[in-house]
Design brief:
mainly alpha
Length: 145
């Protein structure tokens, strides 16, 4: 049985969708590995930001980042994975990139940039979590594409 024409993706859309998922996966894979190889340094960074229950939350973050990266890369439960990772990014942004609590102008600018960058990552994850229908309607109420 063939798929209705309105639900089929153009090959370019498929390539862009897979490429986007792979780039988002890389965004979580590299920091997840980095947290393992620099566990103590990451724990200290978390302590510097007033984080509690650091070993628990650090291990949870590693599991979510590595597991989420794998799921995004292979296309397994993408909508759920994207939703969970968007929540993770939100928590990390609020706790670890709290630019509003920093007085040093250079450090504050750095954390502000990280916070805004994370909002953009969350936006991409939210679009993925919304699934294919998130892309089908334009602002004018017409089919996109």
């Amino acid at each position: 049985m063939t798929e209705p024409a309105e639900t089929r993706q153009h090959p370019v859309q498929t390539v862009l969708s897979i490429g986007g998922r792979l780039l988002l996966a890389l965004y979580f894979l590299v920091p997840g590995i980095s947290k393992i190889t620099n566990f103590e340094g990451t724990a200290q960074y978390m302590a510097d930001h007033g984080m509690v229950a650091i070993p628990f939350f650090l291990i949870l973050t590693i599991v979510l980042q590595l597991g989420g990266a794998l799921c995004l890369a292979i296309g397994y439960r993408v909508q759920l994975t994207a939703f969970v990772l968007a929540g993770l990014v939100l928590v990390i942004s609020l706790v670890m990139h709290d630019f509003w609590n920093i007085e040093d102008a250079v450090q504050q600018a750095h954390e502000t940039q990280n916070f805004i960058k994370n909002l953009a990552i969350m936006a991409g994850l939210m679009v993925l979590a919304g699934g294919p229908r998130a892309m089908t309607w334009s602002l004018l109420g017409r089919k996109a594409g």
